[in-house]
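Progress report, Aim 2. The chain analyzed during this reporting quarter is listed below.
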Amino acid sequence: MRRIGFAATEVSPITRGGAGVLISEVARLLRERGDDVRIVLAAAPDRDRADDGGSVVFATPAEAPGWEFPFMDQSMAVAEELSRLHRQRPFDVVEVQDFDGLGFWLLTHRRDLGFGDTALAVRFHGPVDCQIEAMGATTPELDIVAAMERETFKMADRVIVPTEAIIPLVTQRYGVAPERIAVGAPPVRVLGPTRSWAGTGCDLLVIGRLSEVKGSHDMVRAVIPVMRTVPELSVTFVGADGWSITANESMRSWLENMVPSDLEDRFRFLDHLPPEQVVQLVADSLAVVAPSRFESFNLGVHEARAIGAPVVVPDLPAFEGVLDESTGALVFDGSVEGLSDAIERLATDPDLAARLGATALPLRTDPLTPYTSMPDVRHEREQGGVATAALARVEEIRFASSQPSRVDRLTRAVIRAMPRPAVRALKSLMPRPMRTVLKDRSGWDRIRQEKNWEDRWNDLVRHQSKSGPLPDPRTSVIIPCFNQGPFIRQALISVFSQTDGDLDAIIVDDGSTEQATIDILSSLDLPRVRVMRQPNRGLPAARNTGIAATDAEFVVTLDADDMLTPSYVHTLVGALETHPEAGYAHCWAELFGDFEAIWATRRPNPYQLMLTNSVVGCVLMRRHVWAAVGGYDESLRSGNEDWDLWIRLGAAGWHGTRIPEPLFRYRKHGVSMSVDTESDHATALSALTGRLPDLYARSHLAEVKKKWYPLVSILSTEPIEAPSSDIGSDVQFVVASTVDEGLGSATGKYVVLLDRRHRVDGGSIREMCRILESEPGLGSVTTLGPTPIRVVRTWSIFDPAAPNADRIVALDGTSEQRLSPNSHPSPEWMVPRTIDGLPVQRQHPEEPGAIPDWVPA
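Predicted structure tokens for the chain:
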């Protein structure tokens, strides 16, 4: 039995809409299979409309901070409700609808919400950008929703499509990898007796909400000429009214105004009807018409075919390979003229409708196919990368749709030109309501921040002019710059605000093309700042150029748009002095700009570093270790040049030491190269194994793993006989005088404390490790008996926030039970939820216990 969650804005019979029918039918089939299903509906609670099974939970939107946008509010409310249910009992997979951008908040905040290790799927119903394209019209609000939906597809672990023909659309339009797409046809309800269609009527039936996407207006235009020649022909629209963006009025009003007065009595507009009444209309119709400009599936058409009625459909991917004349459908080319011709054929050929109605019903795939196996969950680095990119892209569109007016721009220009004392005086004299309006129009806070930076820059220039150059700095900060001139002064202010002043800065202009950057760099005239210029060769080459130009003992690699906190250099130099065996020192990062948080990397581990980069790109490094391995690989112009360097340094014996403090400030703005790199972690890892084949050979990786990250560490306070050989080779034996001493040397993912006086079975230990590996929510597994063996997750021993549940198993082996989750709390393992009011995003401290399958032999 699996626990499956759905998130939607429609659920039948609580709300109307084809997507709601699909979700309720899929949920019913999954329950019949034995799965536990919960549906989160974005709507105000309404117990009178709740389903009988009580599986629908209502999520009431609240205002999303900083957005004031109803679709984002709705997305956030659904994500929070799913998170609440997930904490009570974890989901195996959660599926969200694509439209209304409903899954955006869930996928951009998945780790914070507890879904970092849970599969998240998106079902293709009918995204807004496809509808915008079909309508040929949009609004600023729809553009934002379309962006949310596009990014949701890109972030999903799996995208579910209704037919094979939709796959190219999803891969080409949204960049979804084919292996992340699953086909699952919506279940089609049998609303009436099969083949109950009579074929005696002359009424064309159009089922669904009146809308431009559904082509309601195209139907009216197409059928009017045919009505002139076929007097008995009529049309019935069944569905709720919609809104026309083009006409800026209700669809029904627009359609009624299109109809000539002499044909008014041959058009009927009916509201949403119960299924049994729709069945009767279908049975009495000439055919069911889908004049749609865009479709993903169209349940109404398939339900009509189940009754036996012929259908008229456009040449769209939704129907390709499923509906044609061999399965009861007359297909037109999508134009009004083509639809008119198809209607005329039906109306004037008395045998055509009967022949179509008698054909075979279309074949469809199993609706539960997408739920037979769980999607592969994206790596946490990919999750972070795609989420950052998504937030940036949506923010860009939202910003573009809310550009300041001419009055706002003029107000801001006036405020910027005023001396600061005059601004303060103006602010103090104004009544509060007027002050608020002026603050909003002028961007007062932003202008004040800019003036503060300007003052700090002037102070820096005055101070350096007095102090003069520094001949032999101990530390050089290397700052590559390509078209990042607007940020360079802030970066330099952070460098020369260090508590350790024994440093200089080298800026490497990597062939900048923007005039603003060229002018800013040309204007720099500071005695402790050098500007070097080279043709554009990429970030790694720019770093190498800067490092090669200094004789300093230490170098810092700082990107031009980032900053250092004042104690960065002093703290990290101290770390290298304390650890002479380390080649570089790194720290946590404070993210700022588009969003604010703390990125907390895990404890250094050379084996884990080969699978996931756990070092923030800005490090303080011994210059001679950089030279010893040949510096950065200059061929890596698209990212991962730092990860590649850490791997090569580790192979040469130079590992890193970490300071668990946010001393580096990483600016999140737009979709940077680092964001794109994080978004495609799997590709980066594959490229890394190709460049460093000897280091990633399975035999070599097994040696590194056994030393730094074995599956299990067996601790004892006295020499013991090794357990039976079936425990395998991926094990570390640690003998120490005390348990604390032994834990200090243990590097295994799991730990067991044994005693030579007791019987030990290696196979049982390995099986207990397997259970822990398969159930990440467990902190330990314990055997039965008066003196049981307990295998404990190492993370759980040291961190009270780690998984701490225990599982009792009937396996062989006895020992003394002296280790348990949270038995030895350690600050090195514990990460706070917030730091200085900022939420902390924690890198997962574990990797798989076995060497991954992708590692070459």
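The first strand starts at residue 3 and ends at 8. The longest helix spans residues 444-467. These observations will guide the mutagenesis work planned for the next reporting period.
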